[in-house]
């Protein structure tokens, strides 16, 4: 009797939820076979994959969410002696997660990757991490949550090896940005399948989560030379195709119970100009991810943003304002979305000495950013330092973090109770009808809105001094001058 009941429940769930989160592109429109056709050598794994493809995501076991407090580690550092020193520094602190380069800014895979045929075909492996199983075992033994960073469309290596998948200039030559780097074409579904292939392989290697970076178009002036084939674009805009890729990749990876996140520019939040330039619409992307990670470094907001004279000198106010805008943006579409990603911002742990108006970032500045995250109602964060040099004394011990968490939870509960009481009183209070005289004396209240300026280009290693810089579009990638 019990078996029949369970069978009925499964059938009902299949009917209600469907067998896929993503309605795929017809095979006739694809230029290459899906990476899902490739499986491990094990016949047992192949059979498991086939079973997963026929099951809805809701039928797969759910992973326990982790409130991430993390740091970024480059592929080079992860494979060096310095990695052990970082792990020793992490021990006993509130840090419980690491973001490690799996596919780095050069397009190279940082370890020997099994079950990834295209990676092998183009020779993308550059084995900074010599023994991934041993490294992963050590991380798991320490209870550290592992996130695989996969750089997406800025991939000079893939672009050189597969020029037919790359951005092209009007004369048919391979397009290169102002740094001389080639980018792959976000409209090419072969590139999508390659990224899914890397994400699946990272999961098999033991990573708990796949995090995509550079899910965007290049923004420098050289993009004016690029031409897009109408047969590829099919009338889709930059924002259309970036959202479509996220939907596609999430559908493929989540069907295998892989947690998926993505890094996005902080400046796209509330700025349609920046969103259209790079192809990232914050709320749209959040509807197809488990976690969305806005890069809201104070140093990369121009003077005057959020009504702050010099954002880099006001880390708490800047982070608080950016996350307030994030919450407002996501609330607009929350009711329409089946699901919506959790927000997990990137924070600044470096000094932006290239700015005219900057401050040195240390314990106080890092802690202020973290506090702003909590005060905005969020719980997770990741620190960025391109050089992997972190302000360790800014971090709490595990015990201190537990006490802080309990205090924050109590404060939020109290605030929620007060808000509920205030709402009830407001509902019960008599409504005062104003006379025309009262209205005219009071006057119209006009809300001042701080608008983000249009992005003028990429962040680079050497920044020019500027008195009133525009919003700078940056990413978490690359060993450049601390972004």
From TrEMBL:
It holds the Pfam family DUF4015. Residues 419-429 have a biased composition (Polar residues). Coiled coil: none annotated. Residues 24-59, 407-483 are annotated as: Disordered. Transmembrane segments: none annotated. SUPFAM superfamilies: (Trans)glycosidases (SSF51445). Residues 70-390 form the DUF4015 domain. PANTHER family: GLYCOSYL HYDROLASE DIGH. This is DUF4015 domain-containing protein. It comes from Lacrimispora xylanisolvens.
């Amino acid at each position: 009797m019990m078996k029949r009941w369970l069978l009925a429940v499964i059938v009902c769930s299949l009917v209600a939820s469907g067998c896929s989160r993503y309605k795929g592109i017809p095979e006739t429109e694809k230029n290459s076979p899906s990476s899902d056709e490739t499986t491990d050598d094990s016949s047992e794994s192949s059979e498991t994959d086939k079973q997963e493809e026929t099951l809805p995501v809701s039928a797969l076991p759910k992973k326990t969410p982790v409130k991430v407090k993390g740091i970024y580690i480059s592929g080079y550092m992860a494979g060096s002696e310095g990695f052990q020193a970082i792990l020793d520094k992490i021990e006993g602190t509130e840090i419980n997660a690491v973001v490690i380069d799996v596919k780095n800014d050069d397009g190279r895979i940082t370890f020997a990757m099994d079950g990834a045929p295209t990676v092998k075909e183009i020779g993308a492996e550059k084995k900074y991490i010599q023994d991934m199983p041993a490294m992963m075992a050590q991380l798991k033994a320490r209870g550290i949550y592992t996130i695989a960073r996969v750089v997406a469309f800025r991939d000079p290596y893939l672009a050189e090896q597969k020029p037919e998948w790359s951005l092209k200039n009007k004369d048919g030559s391979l397009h290169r940005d102002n740094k001389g780097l080639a980018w792959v074409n976000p409209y090419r579904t072969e590139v999508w399948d390659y990224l899914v292939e890397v994400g699946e392989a990272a999961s098999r290697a033991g990573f708990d989560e796949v995090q995509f970076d550079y899910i965007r178009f290049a923004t420098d002036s050289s993009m004016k030379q690029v031409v897009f084939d109408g047969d590829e674009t099919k009338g889709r805009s930059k924002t259309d195709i970036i959202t479509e890729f996220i939907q596609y990749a999430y559908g493929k990876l989540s069907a295998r119970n892989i947690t998926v996140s993505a890094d996005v520019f902080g400046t796209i939040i509330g700025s349609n100009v920046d969103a259209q330039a790079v192809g990232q619409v914050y709320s749209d992307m959040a509807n197809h991810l488990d976690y969305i990670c806005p890069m809201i470094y104070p140093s990369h907001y121009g003077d005057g943003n959020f009504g702050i004279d010099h954002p880099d000198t006001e880390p708490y106010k800047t982070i608080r304002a950016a996350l307030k805008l994030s919450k407002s943006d996501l609330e607009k579409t929350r009711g329409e979305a089946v699901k919506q990603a959790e927000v997990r911002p990137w924070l600044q742990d470096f000094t932006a000495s290239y700015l005219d108006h900057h401050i040195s970032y240390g314990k106080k500045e890092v802690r202020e950013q973290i506090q702003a995250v909590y005060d905005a109602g969020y719980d997770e964060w990741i620190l960025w330092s391109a050089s992997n040099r972190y302000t360790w004394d800014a971090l709490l011990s595990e015990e201190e973090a537990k006490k802080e968490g309990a205090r924050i939870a109590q404060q939020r509960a109290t605030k929620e109770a007060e808000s509920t009481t205030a709402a009830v009183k407001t509902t019960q209070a008599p409504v005062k009808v104003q006379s025309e005289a009262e209205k005219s004396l009071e006057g119209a209240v006009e809300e001042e809105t701080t608008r983000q300026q249009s992005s003028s280009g990429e962040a680079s290693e050497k920044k020019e001094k500027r008195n009133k810089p525009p919003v700078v579009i940056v990413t978490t990638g690359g060993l450049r001058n601390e972004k």
